[in-house]
Amino acid sequence: MRKIWLILLMAAGWTASAQQRKTPIMGWSSWNTYRVNISDTLIKRQADAMVATGLKDAGYTYINIDDGFFGYRDEQGEMHAHPQRFPGGMKAVADYIHSLGLKAGIYSDAGAVTCGSIWDKDRNGIGAGLYGHEAQDAELYFRRWGYDFIKIDYCGAGQELDLDEQPRYTAIRKAIDQVGRKEVEINICRWAFPGTWAKELAASWRISGDISDNWGSVKHIIEKNLPLSAYCADGHFNDMDMLEIGRSLSESEERVHFGLWCLMSSPLLVGCDMTTIPERSLALLKNPELIALNQDSLGLQAYPVQAVDGTYVLVKDIGRRRTPVRAVALYNPTDSARRISIALSELELEGKARLRDLFARKDLRPMRDTLSAVVGPHDVTLWRVEAERRLEPTCYEAEWAYLPLFNDLGKRKKEVFYAVEAKASGGRVVRYAGGCRENAIVWNRVWSDLGGRYEMRIAYLPAENRGLEVVVNGESVQVPLSAEGVVTLPVVLRPGDNTVEMTCRTQWVPDIDRFTLKRMGN
Question: Of 22, 366, 428, 486, which residue is most buried, by most CB within 10 angstroms?
Fold first, then answer.
């Protein structure tokens, strides 16, 4: 049964065409190791290595050329490849990549200059960005050169010109679509969650600054992505940046890095030199059970259900929603070993739980009632858990909610966001919701097995001059707040998924911690 599960998950992810892709992309990118110091020979050698190492057979299919290929624009504004680095031109490189059965990715900036021109002093990147050349570059890159993917940076648009993100990326998406290549995938590289508008334009978007080859960077990016599971849906993904596997991280840190990138459905783009990758790292990157987790057809991002003593437990459905089979991570980012335990009921599971260690790819002794393991420092335990029954959920944390007006750009002083809060049950609250109807906190999948009447208990941080309106499946009620930070109200849920919103049209909503549900008598 476990072999059948693995085969089905792998097939579900890998048989989708680029146009209908519902899983994160997998491949290699040049930036981490080479920055702007690239050439056609280097790119072709990496493409050959993807095949020779078996990474292609494992599902990695993209060879992405980052900054550094630019030469100059001619009098008509047409971009030419760097004459020394890419003497044969960019189409020849794309053709070579395609001849190996792989896909070719390229790079640009939403502004006029590229990041390499600023940070690496590559003067060829000045004027090489898309700004003012959207249609011209789209025609060249995607129709004439034949590239399949583009990472679009924001150094020229943001650091230089301070342009507005949404119209810039919208104009670029429109230009690419007009070329007739709507299957071309866009990655928005704004170094922070850009806004909920991004899902209309791109398959993925960066949620942090550039990754570095050290534990602190990996830990920081995971922390940034913990509350963002609501934005990973319908074939669109939070991009945790390229992989630093195969460089200088320790064995346990590589397990965390790759395991949580897989569990959180991030794109998987190898960033090391694939011709010299250590065997241990290569085996990790090719682990079919971890890849299946990343390429799961549901396309969900794991979310945290417990935060205790600096450790976390994350969980997500795999295969099908609402079954007794879930992927679970016990994650220890601290500097010393920790025993991490969680009741099965907190995972919405019950009965004897069969465990599959996804790193070791072996079955473990079943556990009942509680999952528990000692996890070393900078390490993670990652299991496929199959219990006897799936329970109806009773708790919904604020950090699982969707915020329609959320972005992480930091352009306004009072923007709705997920605030770290030691008093909160999961370690976070949602702050600065309200002020208008649209600035809501939304849980789109509040589940009821049978439907009926429930008592909803809302926990929040009490404060003055706050208001609260709760909307359940479109039915609204004004909720009187108390100084205790807890309010209860009766609600009616329908069988299956329900939508719960919390907002206030004229005041800030109090900092919301979570709500719980308890079924009432008929």
Answer: 428
